[in-house]
Amino acid sequence: MPFFIGHLDKAIFFNYNYLDFNGVMSGKLDFLISASENPQEIFTVKEACKFLRVGRTSFDTAVKAGQIRFKKNGPCYLFKKAWLLDWMER
């Protein structure tokens, strides 16, 4: 069943068969389910600060002091969740 969008002089008709709402919604739901089943284990600096709820300056100070373990990937610092939690327990 077609529906109408737009002005009468520039009519655009769509057919519901061409719009796959179920496929789009299914894909989004699959993403949300997988995200909840697979919690994040690796963090960037910004994500780690947000996860720990600490400021960037405090976090950088702890990293530079060797209090937080990290892995360097090019110019990026990566942190395992376990390393971050270990620092919080000290």
Describe this entry's structure for a reader.
The chain is an alpha+beta fold. The protein folds into two domains: 2-37, no CATH class; 42-89. 48% of the residues lie in helices and 20% in strands. It has four helices and five strands; from the N terminus they run ββαβααββα. The chain has helices at residues 21-37, 45-52, 56-64, 81-89, and strands at residues 2-5, 12-15, 42-43, 71-73, 76-80. The strands form two sheets. Strands 3-5-4 form a three-stranded antiparallel sheet. Strands 1-2 form a two-stranded antiparallel sheet. β4 and β5 form a beta hairpin. The longest helix has 17 residues, at 21-37.
Descriptive labels:
alpha+beta, three-stranded antiparallel β-sheet
Mean pLDDT: 78
Provide the number of structural domains: 2
Radius of gyration: 23 Å
Structural class by secondary-structure content? alpha+beta
Count of helical regions: 4
Extract low-pLDDT stretches: none
Shape: elongated
Order of helices and strands: EEHEHHEEH
Strand content: 15-25%
- The percent of residues in helical segments reads 40-55%
Question: Could you give the count of β-strands?
Answer: 5
Largest sheet composition: 3 strands, antiparallel
Order of neighbouring strands in the sheet with most strands: 3-5-4
Q: Terminal Cα separation, in Å?
A: 64 Å
